[in-house]
Amino acid sequence: MASVDSTGSRVSGRLRSGDILHTGLVVALLLGVWSVGGLEVSTGKVSHLFAINGSTVLLPCTYASCIGIKNLHFNWHYNNNGSMMKLCEGMISIEGAEPKVIVYNERVEFVGTSKGNNISILLWNITYADDGEYICFAKNEKEKNRNHSASYMLYVVDQMKEIDTTLTTIIVSVVGGVIGLSILGMVIKALVINFLLKDDEKNKECLVSSGNDNTENGHSGAKADNKGTPKA
Protein backbone atom coordinates (compact mmCIF):
# COMPACT_ATOMS: atom_id res chain seq x y z
CA MET A 1 0.00 0.00 0.00
CA ALA A 2 2.85 2.35 0.80
CA SER A 3 4.31 1.84 -2.67
CA VAL A 4 0.93 2.53 -4.27
CA ASP A 5 0.57 5.71 -2.25
CA SER A 6 4.03 6.89 -3.24
CA THR A 7 3.34 6.14 -6.91
CA GLY A 8 0.05 7.96 -6.72
CA SER A 9 1.68 10.96 -5.11
CA ARG A 10 4.34 11.03 -7.81
CA VAL A 11 1.68 10.91 -10.56
CA SER A 12 -0.34 13.58 -8.80
CA GLY A 13 2.77 15.75 -8.48
CA ARG A 14 3.49 15.41 -12.19
CA LEU A 15 -0.09 16.37 -13.05
CA ARG A 16 0.09 19.40 -10.81
CA SER A 17 3.41 20.50 -12.35
CA GLY A 18 1.93 20.00 -15.83
CA ASP A 19 -1.11 22.08 -14.93
CA ILE A 20 1.12 24.83 -13.54
CA LEU A 21 3.22 24.83 -16.73
CA HIS A 22 0.12 24.94 -18.92
CA THR A 23 -1.34 27.80 -16.89
CA GLY A 24 1.95 29.68 -17.06
CA LEU A 25 2.06 29.36 -20.85
CA VAL A 26 -1.51 30.58 -21.19
CA VAL A 27 -0.81 33.58 -18.95
CA ALA A 28 2.38 34.38 -20.88
CA LEU A 29 0.52 34.25 -24.19
CA LEU A 30 -2.25 36.46 -22.87
CA LEU A 31 0.25 38.96 -21.53
CA GLY A 32 2.09 38.93 -24.85
CA VAL A 33 -1.10 39.61 -26.82
CA TRP A 34 -2.10 42.33 -24.36
CA SER A 35 1.27 44.05 -24.61
CA VAL A 36 1.42 43.86 -28.42
CA GLY A 37 -2.09 45.19 -28.97
CA GLY A 38 -2.05 47.53 -25.98
CA LEU A 39 -2.88 51.21 -25.88
CA GLU A 40 -0.36 53.61 -27.38
CA VAL A 41 -0.42 57.36 -27.87
CA SER A 42 1.79 59.26 -30.28
CA THR A 43 2.63 62.88 -31.00
CA GLY A 44 3.91 62.06 -34.49
CA LYS A 45 7.24 61.30 -36.11
CA VAL A 46 8.54 64.79 -35.31
CA SER A 47 7.86 65.45 -31.64
CA HIS A 48 8.93 69.10 -31.54
CA LEU A 49 8.01 72.42 -33.10
CA PHE A 50 9.57 75.85 -33.51
CA ALA A 51 6.89 78.55 -33.57
CA ILE A 52 6.90 82.34 -33.67
CA ASN A 53 5.77 84.27 -30.63
CA GLY A 54 2.10 85.26 -31.00
CA SER A 55 1.17 82.48 -33.43
CA THR A 56 -1.26 79.57 -32.98
CA VAL A 57 0.12 76.04 -32.92
CA LEU A 58 -1.26 72.53 -33.15
CA LEU A 59 -0.15 70.04 -30.50
CA PRO A 60 -0.84 66.69 -32.15
CA CYS A 61 -1.75 63.44 -30.39
CA THR A 62 -3.39 60.22 -31.54
CA TYR A 63 -4.19 56.95 -29.79
CA ALA A 64 -4.31 53.34 -30.99
CA SER A 65 -5.37 50.01 -29.52
CA CYS A 66 -5.81 46.72 -31.38
CA ILE A 67 -8.12 45.47 -28.63
CA GLY A 68 -10.39 48.52 -28.79
CA ILE A 69 -11.34 51.11 -26.20
CA LYS A 70 -13.90 51.57 -23.48
CA ASN A 71 -14.02 54.70 -21.32
CA LEU A 72 -10.76 56.02 -22.69
CA HIS A 73 -9.62 58.82 -20.38
CA PHE A 74 -7.12 61.32 -21.75
CA ASN A 75 -5.59 64.67 -20.83
CA TRP A 76 -2.97 67.23 -21.78
CA HIS A 77 -0.45 68.67 -19.30
CA TYR A 78 2.17 71.38 -19.54
CA ASN A 79 5.40 70.71 -17.69
CA ASN A 80 6.13 74.03 -16.02
CA ASN A 81 9.60 73.38 -14.57
CA GLY A 82 8.46 70.14 -12.94
CA SER A 83 5.01 71.42 -11.97
CA MET A 84 2.36 69.75 -14.15
CA MET A 85 -0.41 72.13 -15.29
CA LYS A 86 -3.52 70.41 -16.67
CA LEU A 87 -4.72 72.04 -19.89
CA CYS A 88 -7.69 69.80 -20.67
CA GLU A 89 -9.11 66.33 -20.06
CA GLY A 90 -11.78 64.15 -21.63
CA MET A 91 -13.27 60.73 -22.11
CA ILE A 92 -14.37 58.59 -25.06
CA SER A 93 -16.93 56.02 -23.91
CA ILE A 94 -16.74 53.56 -26.84
CA GLU A 95 -15.33 53.27 -30.33
CA GLY A 96 -16.83 55.91 -32.60
CA ALA A 97 -18.23 58.09 -29.80
CA GLU A 98 -17.19 61.72 -29.81
CA PRO A 99 -14.98 62.86 -26.91
CA LYS A 100 -16.45 64.70 -23.95
CA VAL A 101 -13.87 67.32 -23.06
CA ILE A 102 -13.27 69.85 -20.29
CA VAL A 103 -10.80 72.68 -21.08
CA TYR A 104 -8.97 74.45 -18.24
CA ASN A 105 -7.09 77.09 -20.23
CA GLU A 106 -8.83 79.78 -22.26
CA ARG A 107 -6.17 79.66 -24.98
CA VAL A 108 -6.57 75.90 -25.47
CA GLU A 109 -9.02 74.48 -28.01
CA PHE A 110 -9.70 70.77 -28.39
CA VAL A 111 -9.75 69.82 -32.09
CA GLY A 112 -9.70 66.02 -31.83
CA THR A 113 -12.24 63.53 -33.10
CA SER A 114 -12.80 59.84 -32.53
CA LYS A 115 -12.98 59.19 -36.28
CA GLY A 116 -9.23 59.57 -36.59
CA ASN A 117 -8.38 58.53 -33.00
CA ASN A 118 -7.37 62.15 -32.67
CA ILE A 119 -7.03 63.95 -29.31
CA SER A 120 -5.01 66.96 -30.49
CA ILE A 121 -5.32 70.52 -29.19
CA LEU A 122 -4.68 74.04 -30.48
CA LEU A 123 -2.76 76.56 -28.41
CA TRP A 124 -3.69 80.11 -29.35
CA ASN A 125 -1.54 83.24 -29.11
CA ILE A 126 1.55 81.55 -27.76
CA THR A 127 4.06 83.51 -25.71
CA TYR A 128 7.61 82.81 -24.57
CA ALA A 129 6.12 81.47 -21.34
CA ASP A 130 4.53 78.62 -23.34
CA ASP A 131 7.95 77.30 -24.32
CA GLY A 132 8.51 73.77 -22.99
CA GLU A 133 7.20 70.22 -22.80
CA TYR A 134 3.57 69.20 -23.37
CA ILE A 135 2.42 65.70 -22.40
CA CYS A 136 -0.48 63.77 -23.93
CA PHE A 137 -1.77 60.98 -21.64
CA ALA A 138 -4.42 58.29 -22.13
CA LYS A 139 -5.82 55.39 -20.09
CA ASN A 140 -8.03 52.56 -21.39
CA GLU A 141 -10.43 50.79 -19.01
CA LYS A 142 -10.88 47.96 -21.53
CA GLU A 143 -7.23 47.02 -20.99
CA LYS A 144 -7.42 47.06 -17.20
CA ASN A 145 -6.55 50.75 -17.14
CA ARG A 146 -3.45 50.38 -19.24
CA ASN A 147 -1.99 53.85 -19.81
CA HIS A 148 0.53 55.47 -22.08
CA SER A 149 1.86 58.98 -22.68
CA ALA A 150 3.87 60.92 -25.24
CA SER A 151 5.58 64.30 -25.03
CA TYR A 152 5.79 67.19 -27.48
CA MET A 153 8.34 70.02 -27.24
CA LEU A 154 7.39 73.56 -28.19
CA TYR A 155 10.10 76.15 -28.80
CA VAL A 156 8.86 79.75 -29.02
CA VAL A 157 11.13 82.09 -31.02
CA ASP A 158 10.97 85.69 -32.19
CA GLN A 159 11.66 84.77 -35.79
CA MET A 160 12.34 81.68 -37.81
CA LYS A 161 16.00 81.12 -38.56
CA GLU A 162 16.98 80.86 -42.20
CA ILE A 163 18.70 77.59 -42.91
CA ASP A 164 22.05 78.07 -44.64
CA THR A 165 21.85 75.94 -47.76
CA THR A 166 25.21 77.05 -49.21
CA LEU A 167 26.96 73.77 -48.46
CA THR A 168 24.02 71.74 -49.78
CA THR A 169 23.98 73.83 -52.97
CA ILE A 170 27.71 73.31 -53.47
CA ILE A 171 27.43 69.54 -52.96
CA VAL A 172 24.47 69.28 -55.33
CA SER A 173 26.29 71.40 -57.94
CA VAL A 174 29.44 69.28 -57.72
CA VAL A 175 27.51 66.03 -57.95
CA GLY A 176 25.46 67.39 -60.85
CA GLY A 177 28.63 68.54 -62.61
CA VAL A 178 30.28 65.14 -62.20
CA ILE A 179 27.20 63.37 -63.51
CA GLY A 180 26.99 65.82 -66.44
CA LEU A 181 30.67 65.31 -67.34
CA SER A 182 30.25 61.55 -67.12
CA ILE A 183 27.28 61.66 -69.50
CA LEU A 184 29.16 64.00 -71.87
CA GLY A 185 32.17 61.67 -71.83
CA MET A 186 29.96 58.68 -72.63
CA VAL A 187 28.34 60.55 -75.53
CA ILE A 188 31.73 61.63 -76.94
CA LYS A 189 33.05 58.06 -76.59
CA ALA A 190 30.02 56.70 -78.42
CA LEU A 191 30.43 59.24 -81.24
CA VAL A 192 34.15 58.47 -81.60
CA ILE A 193 33.53 54.73 -81.68
CA ASN A 194 30.76 55.22 -84.24
CA PHE A 195 33.05 57.41 -86.40
CA LEU A 196 35.87 54.87 -86.23
CA LEU A 197 33.54 52.03 -87.17
CA LYS A 198 32.23 53.96 -90.16
CA ASP A 199 35.80 54.88 -91.24
CA ASP A 200 36.83 51.24 -90.90
CA GLU A 201 33.91 50.15 -93.06
CA LYS A 202 34.89 52.72 -95.70
CA ASN A 203 38.49 51.43 -95.71
CA LYS A 204 37.23 47.87 -96.13
CA GLU A 205 35.03 48.96 -99.04
CA CYS A 206 37.99 50.74 -100.66
CA LEU A 207 40.17 47.65 -100.28
CA VAL A 208 37.50 45.39 -101.77
CA SER A 209 36.91 47.83 -104.64
CA SER A 210 40.65 48.13 -105.29
CA GLY A 211 41.02 44.36 -105.30
CA ASN A 212 38.21 43.99 -107.79
CA ASP A 213 39.79 46.62 -110.07
CA ASN A 214 43.16 44.88 -109.98
CA THR A 215 41.54 41.55 -110.80
CA GLU A 216 39.69 43.01 -113.77
CA ASN A 217 42.86 44.71 -115.01
CA GLY A 218 44.74 41.43 -114.76
CA HIS A 219 42.12 39.64 -116.82
CA SER A 220 42.17 42.39 -119.46
CA GLY A 221 45.95 42.28 -119.75
CA ALA A 222 45.89 38.55 -120.12
CA LYS A 223 43.35 38.79 -122.93
CA ALA A 224 45.41 41.44 -124.67
CA ASP A 225 48.52 39.29 -124.48
CA ASN A 226 46.66 36.35 -125.87
CA LYS A 227 45.42 38.40 -128.87
CA GLY A 228 48.88 39.79 -129.62
CA THR A 229 50.63 36.41 -129.77
CA PRO A 230 51.42 35.49 -133.47
CA LYS A 231 50.37 32.19 -134.83
CA ALA A 232 53.14 29.78 -135.64
Describe this structure in words.
This protein is an alpha+beta fold and 232 residues long. The protein has helices spanning 2-36, 166-228, and strands at 40-42, 48-52, 57-59, 62-64, 70-80, 83-94, 100-103, 108-110, 121-123, 132-140, 146-157. The protein has 2 helices and 11 strands. Strand 5 (70-80) and strand 6 form a beta hairpin. It is elongated. One of its GO terms (biological process) is cardiac muscle cell action potential involved in contraction. It is a single-pass type I membrane protein. Its main location: membrane.
Q: How confident overall, as mean pLDDT?
A: 79
How many individual β-strands?
11
Total DSSP helices: 2
- Order of helix and strand elements from N to C terminus: HEEEEEEEEEEEH
Main sheet properties: 6 strands, mixed
Low-confidence stretches are 25-35
User: What is the strand content?
Assistant: 25-35%
Keywords: Disulfide bond, Glycoprotein, Immunoglobulin domain, Membrane, Signal, Transmembrane, Transmembrane helix
Main location: membrane
Pfam families: V-set
Protein name: Ig-like domain-containing protein
Descriptive key words:
three-stranded antiparallel beta sheet; six-stranded mixed beta sheet; 11 strands; 232 residues; 2 helices; elongated; alpha+beta
